[in-house]
Amino acid sequence: MKTAYTCFCTDVIHEGHLNILAHARQYGRVVVGCLSDREMIRCSRFPTKTEEERMELYKSLEGVDDVILQDDMRYDDAITKIHPDFVVHGDNWTRDADKVIRDHVVELISSYGGQVIDVPYTYNEDVKKVDRRLNEKLAMPEYRRSRLRKLIEMTPIVKVMEAHSGLTGLIVEKTVVENDKGRLDQFDAMWVSSLCDSTDRGKPDIELVDMTSRLNTINDIMEVTTKPIILDGDTGGLTEHFVYNVRTLERMGVSAVIIEDKTGLKKNSLFGTEVVQTQDSIENFSAKIAAGKKAQLSDDFMIIARIESLILERGMEDALERAFAFTAAGADGIMIHSRKKDPTEIFEFCDRFREKNKETPIVVVPTSFNQVKDGELALHGVNIVIYANQLMRAAFPVMKKTAESILRAHRAQEVDSSLMPFKDIIRLIDEI
Length: 432
Ligand code: SPV
Ligand code: MG
Description:
Blueprint: E1 3-8, H1 15-25, E2 29-35, H2 37-42, H3 51-59, E3 66-70, H4 76-82, E4 86-90, H5 99-110, E5 115-119, H6 125-139, H7 141-154, E6 158-162, H8 166-174, E7 176-178, E8 184-186, E9 189-192, H9 194-199, H10 211-224, E10 229-232, H11 239-252, E11 256-260, E12 262-263, E13 278-279, H12 282-295, E14 302-307, H13 316-328, E15 333-336, H14 344-356, E16 362-364, H15 374-379, E17 384-387, H16 390-409, H17 422-428
Parallel strand pairs: 1-2, 1-4, 2-3, 4-5, 6-9, 6-17, 9-10, 10-11, 11-14, 14-15, 15-16, 16-17
Antiparallel strand pairs: 7-8, 12-13
Helix pairs in contact: 8-10, 11-12, 12-13, 13-14
């Protein structure tokens, strides 16, 4: 008897999946692969059920003979294990980012005479509704908030991109690329940067944009995305205010706030010692963290302490002393910042912190030392990498050039070829 293999990466079975099973049955014994959590996350499908629950769900479907765990989105492990005669999939993988996976599967199975069967993709109102409901569930505060801790456990390094609006949130939510190993990569979470949130309003990054405005930005992003959000909370403000903000943020579904150990008028860290900036004392800042942790009601919200010692040239020993003190005060993570062009001091900090503390997540923001790749950071024990301002900085020069061109030409025709086609904008934004 021949074997027909299909892989599911879903928490909810709909008509489309049943249609694939019905097709697969015509070709032989049906084996369903359950894509592992790790791989689901890589291709932008965050699971709301565990691997075991999903396997049970697939086993319970009529006509399924066997279910295996597939731990490789490229199918290598499943194909080596069961040598299917047919791999059955919706024909949606003949286009967009998934095409690379299909091409690889064709290559693997045609080497022994296997065949890929593309089943017309079912995209009716019911299927759309299931998709929407799943997305809606992921966007709910409880789900979204807890997702960051799960990502820290499940991925080698959590990749975070800045978002300062609904539109940039959509870019972070939807961007998927093929990496050099033929797998798909995407961002895991969003950073709501004080620099970008301020710049977008034409204001300096000095805690001038108040919390209500920051919450509005978060709300705009949340309306159209499902990925977890980390808020740049600047200094956290007065402890008496910070405790209220912790409650608001966790209720909204924000996963983490990062507050920096500065006091008085905060300026952007990348100014370094060019401007006057005052670092808070270990005692005061520890008390602020402890008060925040005491106010917090959910288990999964994270308060991450950001250390400015390297930025302010106070030295490595001071940075490490603070890291251990803030962890002892209850910080759920440490962000270490640097404005050096190379990552040596960041690596030294991470290695020395990890000698004594293997657990507490480390966060870094490689804006200045941008030559370092996320994989290398992970080798030094970094858990979260934040690309803090690149979308904002990318947009500004292009918008300025476009405005100049229209002004010079007295019309918009000259810029048209460099603009996003209307139909792409329409596709980017889903209608209900
Ligand atoms: C931000 O993005 O606002 C940050 C990171 O705080 S940095 O600009 O590097 O200080
Ligand atoms: Mg900031």
